[in-house]
Amino acid sequence: MSIITVGIDLAKNVFAVHGVNESGKAELVKPRVARDQLLKLISKLPPCLIGMEACSGAHHWARLFQAQGHTVRLIAPKFVVPYRLSGKRGKNDAADAAAICEAVTRPNMRFVPIKDEHQQATLCLHRTRQGFVAERTATYNRLRGLISEFGIVAPQKVERLLQHIPAHLEALPAWARRCVEDLLVHARDLDKRIDDYDKAISQVAREDARSRALMQLPGIGPVSASALLASIGIGHDFKSGRQVAAWIGLVPGQYSSGGKARLGRITKAGDAYLRSLLVLGARSILASLGEKQDRFSRWARELVERRGYWKAVIAIAAKNARMAWAVLHYGEDFRLTLNIEAA
User: Fold this and answer.
1) Is the pTM of this model over 0.90?
2) Cα gap 254→244, rounded to integer Å
3) Smallest Cα–Cα separation from 187: which of 164, 168, 159?
């Protein structure tokens, strides 16, 4: 019998490969495959289903295997663990490959969308910008901590912090003053780099018709639009917008039993970056409501009054996630409307 399913445990240099035939019997067990030999091994196999954990390099290998005619599925590592434990196997590469091989065949398994090179390049912009933002925040916090050692308590807002520091520089010891000045220079350099990445991301968003369509949604700007497009593509890996909202972690967790439904806090599953962008966009919508009387604004205002500010923010963010999927999935067939309907 020919191999129909293959599980691959990815690594830097040595990979484990496990393949089974139609009856579920192992036909291919390779606990150690060198990196330069993996593609050669897979290219010799007939078209089959290949499963891998969604980790570093997974999308690259997925594209290579798809070019060989295989069907590739990426699985979140946490979904593979139960299948390794069910076989009472120890934790090693071969056991992981066998567990992946079993998990990828499950009918209700959830998979990670495979990204093309353009999507990954766009996400590189976002990840690098995100890193610079985090570094800038750390720099200002370090600055506050240093000057507090000399009795200078700085304001929390960056604008007020920058206005507050110059008046106290002369009172600092020489070496401390040098450290503060260097940190300020570093923060200004990070500001410039972040501005450059903002411009690059905006350019990427403007050049793509799908991103421009996403930016018509309230609360979604160039950063959110390009991140959504790079993360979910045209949405073909999701059956509905609700699945996208659940994938991002904007739906309540269920703790139901005995016929009694119990809904808890949002799951916060999936991509925290996407979730934060959608939440920030929802907050900007509520901040700019004013006295607007269009249907969307009335719905958002009533939602805040009925359920509270933060629940309204999450509801709007989840709504935007569902609408974004519809825009990407249906394209020109989707007629964008801001009318809020029951989802």
Assistant:
1) no
2) 17
3) 159
